[in-house]
Amino acid sequence: MLFLIFPLDKSHFITEDSSSDNINRLSITKAGNSHVRKLLIEASKGICKGAVGHKSKDLKARQNGNPPEVIAYADKANERLRRKYYKMIRHGKKKNVAVTAVARELACFIWGMMTDNIRIA
């Protein structure tokens, strides 16, 4: 469902100001599809509720039958997003700011999966 309405060009939601070795990732933008933006925020709220590295029985059941590289990519994304959220909260960021940052990162992971840019390092 999300793949059908998610643009292949992630620049609709994400801004970045980079030159040589400097990478400055900016906020999620209000350009593009507002429905997709709301879905990303809702999904990131759900991601932020769990413990880092925890997988529920329901999630394990839903992952049955999927390729192992996709599951590894999703697990990597899940762990990274939760760590990012808890780190930002620990450093005094507001909850909504942390959730939006997770939504921005989630958009990058979804874009990577849609473009077959799955790299597990």
Question: How would you portray this structure in words?
Answer:
- This protein has 121 residues and is mainly alpha-helical.
- It has one domain.
- It is built from five helices and two strands.
- Strands 1-2 form a two-stranded antiparallel sheet.
- Strand 1 and strand 2 form a beta hairpin.
- The protein is globular.
- The N terminus is likely disordered.
Topology record:
Elements: H1 2-5, E1 14-19, E2 22-28, H2 34-48, H3 57-63, H4 68-90, H5 95-114
Antiparallel strand pairs: 1-2
Helix pairs in contact: 2-5, 4-5
Tally of alpha and pi helices = 5
Assembly status? single chain
In whole angstroms, the N-to-C terminal distance is 28 Å
Largest sheet: 2 strands, antiparallel
Main sheet strand line-up:
1-2
Give the proportion of residues in helices. Answer: 55-70%
Number of strands: 2
Q: Roughly how many Å is the radius of gyration? A: 15 Å
Order of helices and strands: HEEHHHH
Shape: globular
- Low-confidence sequence ranges: 1-5
Integer average pLDDT: 79
**Helix and strand composition category:** mainly alpha
What fraction strand? 5-15%
Whole-number count of domains = 1
